[in-house]
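In the present case, backbone shapes were mapped to integers, as reproduced here:
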Amino acid sequence: MPLQRRHRGYAPLQKMNPSVSAYHLILISVERYIAIVYPLHYETKFTDRTLKCAISAAWVTGILVAMTWLVWLINADLNRCVLVPGQFYLLEAVAGYIPVCVTMFICYGRIFF
């Protein structure tokens, strides 16, 4: 069995960690923003239940974004070097990294300025 066929299922697992980490950065930014800008409302907004739901949502979203890689591999030609089309990388940037950057710029911008 060729190496490409055997190991193509591991690629979404490799993409899952950066995706989940990116969504955790959003959670940390929003949490720090609320703690600094609205310190008296922090206890009411961030209960154990809301934090568990937010962390679960970050994991689910990160896993789903990483698993979109499998969609591109369904009809991929394994004899070619480029298995994933360019649209995936656009989707990865739009769904994975642009929200992190925008959220961090807004939250930390409002904290410091």
Observations:
- The chain has a mean pLDDT of 82.
- The chain has one domain: 15-112.
